[in-house]
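Incident log, structure service

09:12 report received: a user says their structure output differs between two submissions of the same chain.
09:20 pulled the input from the user's history:
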Amino acid sequence: MPESRIEVQTGSVSPFTGFRTLLYKEVLRFWKVSFQTVMAPVLNAVLFLLIFSHVLDRHITVYGEISYTAFLVPGLVMMSLLQNAFANSSSSLIQSKITGNIIFVLLPPLSYREFYAAYVIAAVLRGLFVGLGVLLVSIPFVDLQLAHPGWVLAFALMGGAILGSLGVIAGIWAEKFDQLAAFQNFLIMPLTMLSGVFYSIHSLPELWQDVSHVNPFFFMIDGFRYGFFGQSDVSPWLSFGVVGVCFVLLAVLTLAMLARGYKLRG
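09:34 re-ran on a clean worker, output below:
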């Protein structure tokens, strides 16, 4: 009986092969179920737009001349982007931990920086797809300006990266789905809904204006909105500074958790 022979081919492997493979896996994970991960959030945002614009558009103008519907659209786009960036990285990690397949991500020789970058970039991409979908669907309902596209892109990327990092932290920390749901329902959702998506903070009493200034989500949405109208509640440079500092702090914290293998390596 002839002996079987296995030939092993060797060759150079790019140092970024592991990172690219994990990023591809994370993008494919949400894209394969895009009806749930992209289309459904777009539909939810459009329902918000239709209901609020129908009720309030004839009664409210913002910054003196902007219709309420036009004011609302950038807030809904950013809110959808942020929530879905968080959902992508957090749900992927918690599912992998509970089903046990996280081992297949931890075994390859990936550095913790590559691990972090792959999850956060995939989260940003999902957020951008959802935000772009909300924007495109909203265009027939409103005459929207785009005064400073660079600011729009900067805040979209920074906001997505912040929520992607928060998703990694939540996914590592949580051991059950209800712990992750608590993180989302008691932290992410209130901070998002109270960030000025549906109103300008100048319409609030002075106390609540001060409270809004300690909410980093307010600066993400206000800076993003500045890119459309050239007007905002605070300076876009102040918003960019706050958002940039938040991103650096969260990135350092997440990388430290990954470097230690916190709740990932026994």
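09:41 both user submissions now match this output. Likely a transient worker issue. Closing.
09:42 reviewer note: The CA atoms of residues 145 and 228 lie 5 Å apart. Confidence is low (pLDDT under 50) at residues 1-8.
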